[in-house]
Amino acid sequence: MSEREIYITKFDLERLSSLIEEIRQHDDKRKMDLASLEKELDRGHIVEPEDVPKDVITMNSRIIFTDTDSKETMTVSLVFPSDADFEKKKISILSPIGTALLGYRVGDIIEWNVPSGKKSLRIDEVVYQPEAAGDYHL
């Protein structure tokens, strides 16, 4: 993954830290997912929800991105694992792509390793960001 600066809201940090602790206590199979998410959280620039730039991907954001290889465009929402639903294009924060998306901005290129090599996405638009909409409870 790219080492660009990412933004995390304090509210998202608190909820994700709680999620990490809960999973650590009850689900040994997901430790690798947790390590990736913790690494992203550790390097994030922590901001108040009302101070996060409007083009940053936060939890429950709906975004449009383009696969830089296939040029396929996709619209997805970044959600907590309990709300994930691939058919409804709701991507879990614990999936490799979900962890990769958190905190990045429109125009950023995100890279991460997949079994077939490297995957690269360009963030095209944040269609909905809870903080920008004043939905600080999401």
Automatic annotation (TrEMBL):
Residues 53-126 form the Transcription elongation factor GreA/GreB C-terminal domain. InterPro entries: GreA/GreB_C_sf (IPR036953), Rnk_N (IPR029462), TF_GreA/GreB_CS (IPR018151), Tscrpt_elong_fac_GreA/B_C (IPR001437), Tscrpt_elong_fac_GreA/B_fam (IPR023459). This is GreA/GreB family elongation factor. Residues 4-47 form the Regulator of nucleoside diphosphate kinase N-terminal domain. Keywords: Elongation factor, Protein biosynthesis. GO terms for molecular function: DNA binding; RNA polymerase binding; translation elongation factor activity. GO terms for biological process: DNA-templated transcription elongation; regulation of DNA-templated transcription elongation. It comes from the Bacteria. SUPFAM superfamilies: FKBP-like.
